[in-house]
Design brief:
single chain, alpha/beta, TIM Barrel, 13% strand
Length: 296
């Protein structure tokens, strides 16, 4: 796919309107009807009209990917979403989607047993929402070491959920805890979903110090202090910042416009570096995904 007027993107965090994703992620069709009673972040995320979200249409979702110039996307599972649905989607559309299996770390033994089969199911990574476990877990708890060790052996990426909304308190998204994991397992590639906002400077510092940490601001680019993510790119983080829309929380075209309109100067080719880094992480050839662009 060549896109002379629209830089192509790899969306590293989407939850499509497909089977068990629907009851878990598509419950707000018109949240603004609830007025100011809703949390501000929900009103912010769901303020843009998104036809595929409102109609729960996978076909419209693919059309919106095309409109946004998203040439490839990572489907992220979660407890409550059937990993069989993720595997099915990836197997049906191997040229368009890669999959992370969602794992509940409440029961580490059960999590390990499930992860053992992820490579055979075509997954490239494991999505952990440790703060949502029962009881909630900090990312650097020793009980999780066996999960990280298995992911290293299986060459699986790990996505850690850095959302303050899904944590009992901000200590559960403390970047220092992610740094401890990254330093302990330097061969483990860690994707930090939601960018640990509001700990923007701290997570950028962790990534600058740990080349195996990749920061994904996704639905927080319009929040206070967001400029810190992009300033870090100018300081040399362009290969470790990943684009993610966190769809359906945000419109695909609107989210894509945000990242394309960032002034990354003097970091020339920042979007290209982000594209190439994302492709490498999931074992894709950037030239095949967007002929002519990666070498552009």
């Amino acid at each position: 796919m060549t896109m002379p007027n629209k830089t192509p993107l790899i969306d590293f965090r989407i939850r499509p309107p497909y089977k068990s994703f629907v009851p878990n992620f598509f419950t707000f069709s018109h949240p603004l009807d609830e007025g100011l009673g809703l949390p501000a972040i929900v009103r912010l995320c769901f303020r843009d009209p998104v036809p595929s979200r409102d109609s729960k249409s996978f076909d419209l979702f693919q059309e919106e990917m095309d409109e946004a110039g998203v040439v490839f996307a990572v489907v992220t599972g979660r407890a409550g979403v059937d990993n069989a649905d993720v595997a099915e989607l990836v197997s049906q559309h191997p040229g368009r989607f890669a999959g992370f299996g969602g794992v509940d770390s409440s029961d580490v033994g059960a999590a390990l047993a499930e992860i053992e089969g992820f490579r055979d199911r075509g997954f490239v990574g494991v999505a952990l929402d440790n703060a949502m476990a029962t009881p909630p877990r900090h990312n650097d708890e020793p009980e999780l070491d066996s999960i990280y060790e298995l992911c290293c052996r299986e060459n699986l990426l790990v996505s850690l959920n850095g959302s303050f909304l899904l944590s009992p308190d901000l200590t559960y998204i403390d970047p220092v805890r992610i740094q401890r994991v990254a330093l302990k397992y330097p061969g483990l590639s860690i994707i930090v979903a939601h960018g640990c906002w509001p700990w923007v400077t701290q997570i950028c510092a962790v990534a600058l110090m740990c080349p195996n940490v990749y920061v994904m601001p996704d639905l927080y680019p319009n929040m206070p202090e967001q400029e810190g993510f992009f300033a870090a790119v100018r300081a040399g983080l362009e290969g470790q910042l990943l684009y993610g829309s966190s769809y359906p929380a945000m419109s695909l075209p609107a989210s894509a416009d945000v990242i394309r309109n960032v002034d990354f100067a003097p970091a020339e080719g920042a979007l290209r570096s982000m594209f190439e880094a994302a492709a490498k992480l999931i074992g894709q050839d950037p030239e095949k995904l967007a002929p002519g662009y990666a070498k552009g």
